[in-house]
Amino acid sequence: MAFTLRQLQYFISVAEEGTVSGAAQSLSISQSAVTDAIKELESDLGVTLFERHRRGLTITHKGHQFYRHATRILASVSDARRSFGEAEAPVGGNLQLGVTSLVAGYVLSDLLARYRRAYPGVNVTAIEDNGDYLEHLLIGGELDVAVMVISNLRDRVALQAEIFETSPYRLWLPLGHRLGGADIISVSDIVPEPLIMLTVDETEENTGKLLAAFSARPNVAFRTRSVEAVRSLVATGAGIALLPDLVYRPWSLEGDRIESRDISGALPVVQVGMVWRRGSRLTQAARDFIGLAQQQHAPRGRAAQER
Amino acid sequence: MAFTLRQLQYFISVAEEGTVSGAAQSLSISQSAVTDAIKELESDLGVTLFERHRRGLTITHKGHQFYRHATRILASVSDARRSFGEAEAPVGGNLQLGVTSLVAGYVLSDLLARYRRAYPGVNVTAIEDNGDYLEHLLIGGELDVAVMVISNLRDRVALQAEIFETSPYRLWLPLGHRLGGADIISVSDIVPEPLIMLTVDETEENTGKLLAAFSARPNVAFRTRSVEAVRSLVATGAGIALLPDLVYRPWSLEGDRIESRDISGALPVVQVGMVWRRGSRLTQAARDFIGLAQQQHAPRGRAAQER
DNA sequence: GGAAGTTATCGGATTTTCCGATAGCAGATG
DNA sequence: CATCTGCTATCGGAAAATCCGATAACTTCC
After folding, report:
1. Interface residue of B71, B84, B227 to substitute, partner A, most A CBs within 10 Å
2. For chain A: N or C, fewer Cβ within 10 A?
3. Residue A7 — pLDDT band, cuts 50, 70, 90?
4. What number of CA atoms fall less than 13 Å from residue B223's CA on the CB side?
5. What's residue A264's pLDDT?
């Protein structure tokens, strides 16, 4: 337990700004202090969090891993602070959530845990379905809020959306793949490779568009609805995959390791966020949920100013 | 975000030891340092965490509230540390959990969240039933581990148990109750009061025994299986309740406040823990679960030594 | 009244943290 | 090619935090 909350704060800021100087400015602190903090943190963990770069620094895989924990810790701290904030007007009632399957395991679980902790009186129910159907339910008033991929939201008139996480597409490779050593990977490199396709939410559609933009037809070796299956298939060398970073984990179920790489070029990102019906009066429970989610992954700016 | 992880560590130690000196000794640190840290923490939060007492110090209600958050934060920190500990041998497989209803909402949810985070590959299923039936399933090999109240475990030959939390009984009162102002509350004070009885797990049996030890027959005004109902009934003045501290929350569903008080005298405590079949080879998933739970609420001693 | 136990307080030593300046490096620019 | 710009690493000293030891004040128990 040697590292400090302050170090975590600096680390997160650096990870998000992508540069020490930027983080220092955003924290209104000197640059050397940030450098020291990061160095101290790394030596304490015994892990290199960033790769020093000519122009800024890019986060390591382990750094990314630690980033998740760090944000979680700071969220807990924020909860603790707020817990006896202002009388905590305890709300009861119901909250009807909708969620798409990709988001369910990777985004909603944390969010829901925090929400239940903060508002234990609310009775939460959640259903999982595809995005179109969720939109239908939202418009019909049968759902309060949906957490979903909103990059391709259909009805932007009746529905209001708020992004709270954007996740870039990354390339998943088995360890030792020929592309693993390449300095730069471009889309044309991956076109001939056999591709493992996840057929959940809109990932298939997106990946198809992605490659079509380079006038390439993907060489699809497998289709599956299970992220775990994609991991196993990639790990055992059945192919490579192109998936948003938020579902990436460095190992498969059986323990085989996989690797994830950035792809050069401006590939689109997946936007995860909340959707609710525009103009409809939200219940207190829904407002609280939205507020919590907003503050989960957006508050970096404010957090910096608060200092 | 001003307080420090160190302060949290000291705070937890004081809360558990019940005295600054004891905490200082357990942390192998000077007493004044602990006093300073607590005082700093209190002034930062703007809340008094402890009531200074002639003989040690007792935790405030808000202190208790903060304690929960503090342990959660430190658990997250520990997770972050361990996350890239040693290759993280990723296990798959299944884990069959059993849980009694009281424990499900108040103990298991946190534990399960941490477990899924640490071992995302394991497929967890849980069933909720009464203690006797869980014992039956454990012996039959249909459950890997059960999380339950183990104070009155029947079969201690075939089953092995490990406590990881003990929760004292406390008295729940509506705000402004005549006993709320009393300096000391003894069992004889509460005997004539109408009692709200929770008929879940073994709480009814325990409460009965408790009062019977003072040769008193409880004056039961209500029986219910819902903790929420107990809160509402207590808050609206229908009676008082005698329940383990781990289910205490200071407000009812409707927002009415309730209060909890210590009772003088050595009342028994509820022991929550895990149970598994003695001698049977546990699966890796079960061993991991047990290890995580052990380290959730027991590591204070070790944590102190690690310093 | 004294002994033993507790927490609070204070001054000084030690350690951590921060800052500002400087050096070094890579790319952009003239 | 020289120069400028934007970035990180390093270093010494200042500032702040943390810790310690001693002491005071109080309560309980003998």
Report:
1. B84
2. C
3. very high
4. 10
5. 58
Measured CA to CA, the distance from residue A112 to residue A77 in angstroms comes to 17
Residues lying close to strand C (Cβ under 7 A), chosen from 72-111 of chain B, are none
Please give the protein residue whose CA is closest to the C1' of the nucleotide C4: B55
CATH of B5-83, one of 1.10.10.60, 1.10.10.10, 3.30.565.10, 2.60.40.1120: 1.10.10.10
Cβ proximity of B280 and B141 under 8 Å: yes
Provide the token pair at A267: 């590939």
Query: How confident is the model over B109-120, as a mean pLDDT?
Result: 80
Q: In B, residues 55-94, which contact A (CB 8 Å cutoff)? A: 62, 65-66, 69-70, 72-74, 76-81, 83-84, 88-92
DSSP secondary structure code for residue A273 in this structure: E
Which chain B residues are within 8 Å of A76, Cβ to Cβ?
69, 72-73, 76
**Which tens digit of pLDDT belongs to each residue from B44-84?**
898 889 888 777 788 887 888 899 899 989 989 988 888 77
B209 touches chain A (CB under 8 A): no
Architecture of domain B94-165+271-302 in CATH? 3-Layer(aba) Sandwich (3.40)
Q: Please report how many Cα atoms fall inside a 13 Å half-sphere around the Cα of residue A142, on the Cβ side.
A: 9
Instruction: State pLDDT tens for residues B188-236.
Output: 778 888 888 888 777 888 787 777 777 777 788 888 877 777 888 888 7
Nearest C-alpha neighbor of A205 from the set B113, A306, B63, A213: A213
